[in-house]
Amino acid sequence: MSTPYGSWPSPFSAADVSASAPRIDGARFVGDEIWWGESVPSEGGRVTVRSSSGAEVLPAPWSARSRVHEYGGGAWTADAEGTLYFVDGASQRVHRMPRGGAPEPLTAPGPQYGGLSLQQGRLFAVREDLRPERHLRAIVEIPLDGAAAEDDGAVRVFIQGSAFFAHPALSPDGTRLAFVEWSGRRMPWEQANLRFVHTADDDTITGVNTHAALQPEWVSDTELLYLDDPDGRWNLHRATLEDLTLEAWPEHVSPADADTGGSLWVLGQRWYGILADGRIVAVRTNGSDEIVLIDPSTGDSQALDAPITAEASVCDVQGSRVLISGSGADVERGLWSLDADSGEVTAIRGGERVDARWVPIARPVTFDGPHGEVHAFDYPPTNPDPVAPAGELPPYIVMVHGGPTAHVSGAASAAYAYWTSRGIGVLDVNYGGSTGYGRAYRERLDGQWGVVDVDDVIAAAQGLADAGLADPARIAIRGGSAGGWTVLSALVRGGAFAAGISRYGVADLRMLASDTHDFEKHYMEGLVGPLPEAEDLYIQRSPLTHADRIDVPVLLEQGSDDSVVPPSQSQVIRDALAARGIPHEYLEFEGEGHGFRRAETIIASLEAELAFLGRTFGFTPAE
Fold first, then answer.
1. How far is Cα 494 from Cα 194, in angstroms, rounded to an integer?
2. In this predicted model, what pLDDT tens digit does every residue of 190-231 receive, in sequence order?
3. Domain 363-617 sits in which CATH superfamily?
């Protein structure tokens, strides 16, 4: 007996998705143990720190979460003796917690911190103080004796201003601090410079203008490595202080037609690590991720046999071992220890192999679009038991990632298996503007947000239907944040999608420009144009302006505490749809910000989306 697509019985519940593969937030070698940060959806999205010994290092209700640049990152670190340093998610104060002891504050109330790093027994951080009378960002050193717990003046400031900072790196002799700096008028993947400050003289700032510098790491007192993309791909570069003073062209270490680097949305992200003998373990991305071992003396590289193909981050190194978090084509998200000498790969947390009978292996696909090739990953309906009626084509969801300067790679996903095991295909699109394919592909979106991204997702959907893989009358589009903008913009365009799911999506550009936070305040100048000169374009591009063109059902999901894309953005679309009688639903989740972290929210939103698509596409979910 046949079973229609969408009605297949599935072992994956929304609760299973919520409790599936852990979201890893950094990892460290701590003595003989390995520690890692992990989000706990069942505890309101609290970020704890766990140990390979089986202990929970950071107990409830504490949560290690930074809000610097709103997206945070680098919210904890630890020393070899097991002292934990973390940003308290509630107060944003940095705390110190000795092994077996209780947390004690190291910084005063007011500023917020992120990008914590212990170097030579000194604690460095990125500080953001958005109080109206200050409104400054800085790279600082936090005293470990608690002197700054009540006196903010005890925090040593190396550089501060209205610019943005990341990746502080102390030279081996302790005389120089390298860091990355970018103007608030540009995003870090557009223009970010490598800078140095003399630690004995805070006023002496040197450096060189780079393209989109990332992650400086010292290899000696006078030589360092860093990432940059002067040739269109983020690759490793080597430079001496003399080179940089003379502004000589830095030396490529191991050039490749792939990216070692990415969009700097969160602090603490690392794309390479230097082993004890000087060899380098790095992530290379060209659609999917690859882990490579580089000999810096020759530039030779070899791929390592690691299961990680997506979301890879090099968290820490110790001798010949490296900790890498991420996910893979046939393994769940997790954390691995990789030994570059023996080749041994050990899963520390997560990383279980998936059952290919239920979880599809992503298929990289490319479609022809009006602006060039469009890259995507296809996850077809996958279930070992049911058979669809003869001649029926499956419904599909076209997924649109946020950013828009971001990237998806083909990886095993319980969240996607929730759909595919029920007979609903998933197409994950890296539209023009995405990272992972070089600067030229990334810059395709410059001045064209709302045009290129929409053209590309429509081309992908049509290409899928033309290939006979999807029912052209039952293709939905789903995305969050900037992806929600593309969802609404594509529905305004009309014709390609029969339903839309917008999660905290942008509806009105002028409203976003006036409401959004500092980090993205000028982002749209590159994506659309400067205000007020481009105001007409902001009006013309905004989905709200043309909401009367949306003629298919829409599900809107929103966090009540979202400061990046405030609830007003979803509410104005809701009201416009209601005024015209277009079928729609609006779900606002109390206490959620930009992105859903709580188990109850993840469950409720998935179940609502499945019910919404069932009503819209005419299938009855098995449960």
1. 45
2. 999 999 998 886 566 777 778 999 999 999 999 999 999 999
3. Alpha/Beta hydrolase fold, catalytic domain (3.40.50.1820)
